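Quick one:
INPUT:
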């Protein structure tokens, strides 16, 4: 996943191979100890101040850093940002009793959605349509069958997968435009985890712009959003983890006003009783972990929700179909994006729009090819 390399020291968040790893447990423990602790300090520019919060939400460690004109502005903006994330987290957990999503998944009738959730569902359905269902917010019956929602990993039988597939399909979700009520048909169930962090980043970005923040670095569990520039007016540097060695970087991107979201087979997986490695990126068409020849996909877009959903979709599609989708969106300002693909064989493809901003690490030097428009 993408990691900011602007701050030292930082939590080791770019490796997530399963909830039982000691290193991950230690990282989460550090995040809990720091939960919503706010710190402010004078930046190099005397006209700005910086506030930072580290916390856990959406089952991951997060950090938000805000630059503003003075300390009060920075602290108030930061507090508002954490409230946004907490509110979405409380509504969107499919496994948390009482959350809005959990209640919808158990409901037999339409359930009115909070404004934020309604907008998020509409965005999720739009991205499902745009990707031909490679991203599908109704994937929950499948991710649950594989144990990725609970951490109790298992390989379901072919019969279980076939049954779960009958309940997967984004067209089973209906949002009433007048009332905001959501209806699920065909025993569908929603899981917005593949787009929620990106949407939260968009909400935070809008809030910070309204508050005239001078810059921000929003790291929501590896979905990294940068706003404005650093206090020294240089671009932000965002690292892309090496999926074959997640403790190292495959390269870095120089960015401003963008979100980077990565989906990879190294982030969450288990090895089954037959020695087969099963990762969490399920293909909604087959019901099995996607076998696309890719180890990771990093998407850069101005919309966090779009980047989040696309990183999953492109991984499922594989390079050829992903590049076709990239080319098809180049003249659509609302959908245009750029991407970095790292294949299982260690080769790297970078779309043309990132050719000058992506710098490979030494391990990947000479292995990078640019995809022309």
């Amino acid at each position: 996943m993408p990691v900011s390399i602007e701050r030292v020291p930082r939590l080791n968040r770019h490796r997530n191979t399963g909830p039982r790893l000691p290193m991950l447990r230690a990282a989460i423990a550090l995040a809990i100890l720091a939960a919503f602790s706010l710190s402010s300090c004078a930046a190099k520019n005397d006209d700005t101040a910086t506030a930072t919060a580290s916390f856990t939400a959406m089952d991951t460690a997060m950090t938000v850093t805000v630059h503003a004109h003075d300390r009060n502005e920075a602290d108030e903006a930061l507090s508002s940002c954490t409230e946004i994330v907490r509110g979405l987290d409380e509504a969107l957990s499919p496994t948390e009793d009482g959350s809005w999503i959990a209640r919808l998944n158990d409901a037999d009738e339409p359930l009115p959605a909070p404004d934020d959730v309604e907008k998020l569902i509409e965005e999720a359905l739009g991205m499902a349509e745009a990707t031909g269902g490679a991203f599908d917010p109704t994937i929950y019956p499948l991710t649950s069958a594989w144990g990725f929602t609970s951490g109790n990993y298992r390989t379901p039988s072919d019969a279980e997968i076939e049954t779960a597939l009958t309940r997967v399909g984004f067209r089973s979700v209906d949002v009433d435009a007048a009332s905001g009520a959501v209806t699920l048909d065909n025993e569908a169930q929603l899981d917005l985890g593949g787009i929620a962090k990106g949407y939260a980043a968009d909400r935070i970005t809008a809030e910070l712009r309204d508050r005239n923040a001078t810059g921000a670095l929003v790291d929501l569990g590896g979905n990294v959003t940068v706003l404005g520039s650093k206090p020294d007016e240089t671009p932000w540097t965002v690292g892309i983890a090496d999926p074959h060695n997640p403790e190292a970087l495959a390269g870095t991107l120089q960015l401003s006003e963008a979100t980077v979201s990565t989906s990879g087979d190294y982030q969450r997986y288990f090895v089954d009783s037959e020695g087969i490695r099963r990762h969490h990126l399920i293909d909604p068409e087959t019901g099995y972990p996607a076998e696309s020849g890719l180890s990771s996909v990093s998407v850069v877009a101005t919309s966090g929700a779009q980047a989040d959903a696309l990183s999953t979709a492109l991984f499922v599609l594989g390079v050829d179909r992903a590049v076709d989708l990239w080319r098809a969106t180049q003249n659509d300002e609302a959908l245009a994006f750029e991407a970095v693909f790292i294949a299982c064989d260690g080769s790297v493809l970078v779309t043309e729009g990132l050719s000058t901003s992506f710098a490979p690490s030494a391990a990947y030097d000479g292995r990078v090819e640019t995809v022309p428009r």
